[in-house]
């Protein structure tokens, strides 16, 4: 405050010269380097004020503040484009998932440009860089013994010849009896649901009745990381930067003990799992499925497994930066700066 008062009294001549950042913006030795992201907006709809106010606007305000302070600042964001929500919306609009992503990515970019959000780069997750980095992280986890394989019971539609992701199933909520509950959550009572728990389940693609079938999936072995995570959390909590709510939720997870977390899904739209036995896991259909538009054909085609969006999407922050600069690791693997 004293410095601000002093500069105010001395007038504009006392201000440091404005920074003229180079392109691309890269960390500079000896300076304060700030990397800012906001939550990646999902691509299957038109963004509304809640999206912008919820995360984008606050990040933009902070980015502008950092630049005014002459801090070396990079602000990146982009659309999150893989997963079942994209497939579902593509079905509704009669488009392939890629066509849907191309359409709504452009809409998002235009909206944020209209609001003058000061991104240095607004990218997307459906890129070769995303595939390369996500598969590299997967291979590193596999080589270090942090992955395991296990069987899940999952709903399979014999008519479509595919295992059904959570959002491709509707049925009656086992908790409140709501007749249009999704395979991941009930919109009436708000409880999370395992799709196989639904009563009277229906395939959203053909309205057929799916059957419970065992299927192999890959899991992140979180119990192996629990000890190291607890030690790291104690150090970071001591710094005082966590909100009370974030501390409470994290302590609850640790109190109950971490469980292995599934990182794969039987889908067509996502980053492929680069492991034999998961590249072409689902065999040909028994009869043609006419419910799918171009780009989502299932008849007679072997479907690969892809990474579950919760594993894949956070890597989008890295891949979007990598599409901005091939020196992205200087931002993401440089804790000293």
Task: Give a brief rundown of this model.
This protein is of the alpha+beta class.
Description:
This protein has helices at 2-10, 49-68, 84-93, 97-114, 128-143, 226-238, 244-256, 309-312, 316-324, 329-332, and strands spanning 33-37, 72-79, 121-124, 147-157, 162-163, 169-172, 181-182, 199-203, 211-220, 261-262, 264-265, 306-307. Helices cover 34% and strands 17% of the residues. β6 (169-172) and β7 form a beta hairpin. Among the domains are: 15-125 and 313-336, Rossmann fold (3-Layer(aba) Sandwich); 165-209, no CATH class. It contains ten helices and twelve strands. It is α+β, with helices and mostly antiparallel strands. The strands form four sheets. Strands 5-4-9-10 form a four-stranded antiparallel beta sheet, with no helix packed on it. α3 packs across α4 (97-114) and α5 crosses α9 (316-324).
The percentage of residues in β strands lies in 15-25%
Radius of gyration: 23 Å
The overall pLDDT, averaged over residues, is 87
Residue windows where pLDDT falls under 50 for at least 5 positions: 282-302
CATH superfamily of the domain at 15-125 and 313-336: HUPs
| Helix-strand pattern | HEHEHHEHEEEEEEHHEEEHHH
CATH structural architecture of the domain at 15-125 and 313-336? 3-Layer(aba) Sandwich
Relative helix content: 25-40%
Helix/strand/pairing category: alpha+beta
Question: Number of helical runs?
Answer: 10
At the fold tier of CATH, the topology name of the domain at 15-125 and 313-336 is Rossmann fold
Global shape: globular
Major β-sheet annotation: 4 strands, antiparallel
Spatial order of the strands forming the largest sheet: 5-4-9-10
GO molecular function, one term: methionine-tRNA ligase activity
Protein name: Methionine--tRNA ligase, cytoplasmic
Family: Belongs to the class-I aminoacyl-tRNA synthetase family.
Subcellular location: Cytoplasm
């Amino acid at each position: 405050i004293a410095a601000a008062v002093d500069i105010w009294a001395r007038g504009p001549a006392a201000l440091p010269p404005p920074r003229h950042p180079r392109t691309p913006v890269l960390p500079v030795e000896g300076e304060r380097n700030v990397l800012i992201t906001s939550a990646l907006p999902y691509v299957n709809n038109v963004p509304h004020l809640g999206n912008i106010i919820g995360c984008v606007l606050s990040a933009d305000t902070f980015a502008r503040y950092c630049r005014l302070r002459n801090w070396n600042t990079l602000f990146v964001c982009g659309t999150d484009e893989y997963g079942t929500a994209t497939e579902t919306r593509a079905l509704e609009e009669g488009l392939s998932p890629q066509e849907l992503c191309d359409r709504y990515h452009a809409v998002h970019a235009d909206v944020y440009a209209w609001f003058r959000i000061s991104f240095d780069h607004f990218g997307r997750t459906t890129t070769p860089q995303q595939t390369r980095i996500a598969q590299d992280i997967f291979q590193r986890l596999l080589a270090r013994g942090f992955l395991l394989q296990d069987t899940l019971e999952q709903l399979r539609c014999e008519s479509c010849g595919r295992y059904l992701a959570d959002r491709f199933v509707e049925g009656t909520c086992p908790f409140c009896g709501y007749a249009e509950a999704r395979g991941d959550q009930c919109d009436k009572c708000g409880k999370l649901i395992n799709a196989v728990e639904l009563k009277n389940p229906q395939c959203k693609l053909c309205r057929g009745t799916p059957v419970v079938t065992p299927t192999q999936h890959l899991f992140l072995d979180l119990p192996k990381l629990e000890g190291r995570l607890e030690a790291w959390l104690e150090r970071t909590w001591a710094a005082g930067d966590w909100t009370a709510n974030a501390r409470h939720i994290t302590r609850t997870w640790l109190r109950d003990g971490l469980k292995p977390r599934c990182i794969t899904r039987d889908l067509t739209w996502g980053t492929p799992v680069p492991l034999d036995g998961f590249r072409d896991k689902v065999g040909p259909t028994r009869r043609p499925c006419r419910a799918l538009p171009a780009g989502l054909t299932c008849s007679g085609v072997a479907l690969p497994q892809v990474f579950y969006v919760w594993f894949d999407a956070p890597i989008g922050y890295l891949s979007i930066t990598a599409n901005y600069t091939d020196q992205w690791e200087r931002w993401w693997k440089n804790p000293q700066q």
